[in-house]
Amino acid sequence: MEFTAAHAAAGFRDAVRTRTYGMSSPTGGARFDSLCVAPPSPTGDGDPLVASIVQSTTFVRDGLESGAVHRYSRESNPTVAALERSLGRLEDALDALCFATGLAAETALILATARSGDHVVCSRAVYGGTTRLLRQVFADLGVDATFVDTTVPCEVANALRPETKLVFVETPSNPTLVLSDLREIAAIVRASRAILAVDNTFLTPVLQQPLELGAHVSVYSTTKFIEGHSVALGGALVTRDAALRERLFFLRKCTGAIQSPFQAWLTLNGLKTLPLRIERQSANAERVARWLAGHEDVAVVHHPSLPGFPQRQLADAQHRGGHGAVVSFELAGGQERARRLLRGVRLCRLAEHVGSVETLLTHSASMTHAAVPREERDALGISDALIRLSVGLEDPRDVIDDLAVAIAGSRACDAQEEVIRCAAAE
Question: What pTM, to 2 d.p., does this model score?
Fold first, then answer.
């Protein structure tokens, strides 16, 4: 991305314009899976195989003229930097910037691109925390946001204004998994002076590469699939734009939103198995989605692998060999039936989370999207009956068996209640 007036308006320095990628590593041109496993820095005789945790808050300097890379861990830290190198090279980009959480990363991104009087265009179908951030935090700071259906690219074009500085797209969306055509949206956004950011948390760089599709920034909650074991919070921003990265680095330093060394170390180790995990979880999800789609008690199933998925052609063109581990569905019978199912599972767990090696169920309307007004949830297809399923690494047959028992149990409850109602009527 060239240095433009939008950069200057956001306060970016004109001195750094070059587009250099973060591939200067001992792995050279290694393939993707190898990049996930390879050490972020060269190793020598007697060096530890596993990267060390540098827990120090501060670093010794030789003198006032010291050019040491790390000075204070609120600004940068060797362990965090190791994760940043690894994440950046997965997208042939500059070193990523890691944050304490995904929402901390989004906050820095909005601060970096928009000021009072500026405008943001955002996917209407987006994580509830992003909606809350724009509507209840940045709106009070004078940043206006328009939520549009980004599955229709012309709606993005129609929403753009001269003061639009950021277009934020989530694809697949959470939790209905509708897709946005990133190539087409990128062409629209690049004709303006806005920056296109894509939340790629659900697919990760393994299954989707937003920067290759034209985005300026890939956004991640590394808490989810990248770390994968539900033990470390984190967020990351990945870009090939040096000026934008410098601005983001400055804001992270000012706000103190950097990821902690221990959380970064856990994430770095989770990253090593990311390709294996998400490819297997994606395949498991396809199998579970097909079973759900054929079940007589299931009214709706959302997953891009299904033949009836409305955007199947786009999914095949945009995704890289799989469509992710997240499935969402509704039982015939509405919200009460969903509640019974959630109480009836044993192997699957109810949790406000995705991306773990365990299979997790979430009631989106009351959990992840509780901050979204009901009328908007209904318009997005996030009904009170919708259940989001993040498929893990268990044998998919066991996940299916667990769901089958829970669905049958929820049906039995319906029959029991009908008997009670009839007896009461007599």
Answer: 0.89
